[in-house]
Specification:
Blueprint (H helix, E strand, L loop, with lengths): L22 E2 L2 E2 L4 E3 L1 H7 L3 E9 L6 E12 L9 E7 L7 H14 L8 E6 L5 E7 L7 E3 L6 E11 L7 E8 L4 E4 L5 E2 L11 H26 L4 H16 L1 H13 L3 E4 L11 E4 L15 H13 L4 H9 L1 H7 L3
Antiparallel strand pairs: 1-2, 3-7, 4-5, 5-6, 7-8, 8-10, 9-10, 10-11, 11-12, 11-13, 14-15
Helix pairs in contact: 2-3, 4-5, 5-6, 6-7
């Protein structure tokens, strides 16, 4: 199964028609590459490090900082030059994206998963210093929640966020991807979230062990979804929850959108005066010509509410905000109190 997209040169980078440009801490994100592990690995840039130094003004001497190193991207094509991407301390352990992805690949192989039916999606910043991987598991019963909608399904996946320049911590999270709307739902806490930035004591093998633990948790996630699908909610509960809890966490504009989607399935934007008004008191206009995919409005159970929240969170163009908002969905669901 080869689904690899062509990786365009920098001159071609930009949002596709109808899509927003993704960015990550101020840097544009290249179009995603997807396929097998090997497909994505073949497109990933490699990195190196060297002493942080510069030539003197007369060019005769080289000044070296004895405390810092420079991280650089290796040339991708013949004739290219290395590109510096960051400065790190001498004791910083550079975890190459390849090493991270290979570790997960090996962990899955050790558990006899069909790697040819694992779908990997990778996106990274313009020079590759920050990378996000989505590893979608094979279509086996253990990793699939079916009959979500009309011939719709969700698939278990692991997401990994990494940087080679120390700009973000290595993080791995387990969750589920709903195909009809590409909603990514995070379940539970992060598998791994380093509190220190790639120090020497970090053992990358720990990531492989955590991946194994996540695989074992997939069945309990499915039980939670079944519970959410069978738990009814109505407007008398949803409206005050949106006015209070959702608005407090995500702000009034996002709360207005949540209310619009759970009510009739269409994404909306607020219009008119919003001052001193609760989200349910604000007028709206629809923002698209089609309803939000995968929403059966009016939403009547917890699972449907979770999908609306995941949709709103997934619309964030900034990757770090997308992750933060999706991480808050489960807590917001808990606040419904039904």
């Amino acid at each position: 199964m080869s689904l690899t997209t062509r990786t365009p040169p920098p001159s071609e980078i930009g949002p596709a028609l109808g899509q927003r440009q993704r960015h990550w801490l101020g840097l544009p994100v290249r179009p995603a590459t997807e396929g097998t592990f090997d497909d994505v690995l073949s497109a990933l840039p490699h990195f190196g490090r060297q002493p942080f130094a510069m030539a003197s003004l007369n060019g005769d001497e080289l000044g070296i900082n004895s405390y810092l190193d420079m991280v650089y991207r290796l040339p991708i094509r013949q004739g290219e030059r290395p590109v510096p991407v960051g400065v790190v301390s001498k004791n910083y352990r550079l975890l190459d994206h390849h090493q991270i992805l290979r570790t997960i690949q090996q962990s899955m192989a050790n558990r006899k998963l069909d790697l040819e039916n694992v779908r990997v999606i990778g996106e990274w910043t313009i020079h590759g210093e920050r990378a996000h991987f989505s590893i979608i598991f094979p279509p086996e019963e253990h990793f699939t929640v079916g009959t979500v909608g009309n011939e719709d399904e969700m698939r278990f996946r692991i997401e990994v966020f990494n940087s080679v320049d120390g700009s973000c911590r290595l993080m791995a999270i387990a969750g589920w991807l709903r195909f009809v709307c590409t909603n990514g739902l995070i379940i539970g806490a992060a598998l791994m979230q380093l509190q220190q930035q790639h120090r020497q004591q970090l053992e990358v093998e720990e990531l492989g062990r955590r991946v194994g633990e996540a695989i074992e948790s997939a069945q309990s996630d499915k039980a939670k979804f079944a519970q959410w699908m069978s738990t009814r909610v109505d407007g008398s509960v949803l409206v005050p929850w949106i006015d209070d809890d959702v608005c407090a966490v995500w702000g009034v504009k996002a709360a207005v959108r949540v209310l619009g989607i759970v009510t009739d399935g269409w994404d909306v934007e607020p219009v008119g005066d919003m001052r001193n008004r609760r989200p349910s008191q604000i007028k709206t206009n629809r923002t698209s010509e089609v309803p939000v995919p995968g929403v059966d409005a009016p939403v009547s159970n917890l699972f449907g509410v979770s999908q609306v929240l995941s949709w709103i969170a997934g619309q964030r163009a900034e990757i770090s905000e997308d992750l933060q908002w999706r991480s808050q969905v489960q807590d917001l669901i808990a606040k419904l109190g039904v």
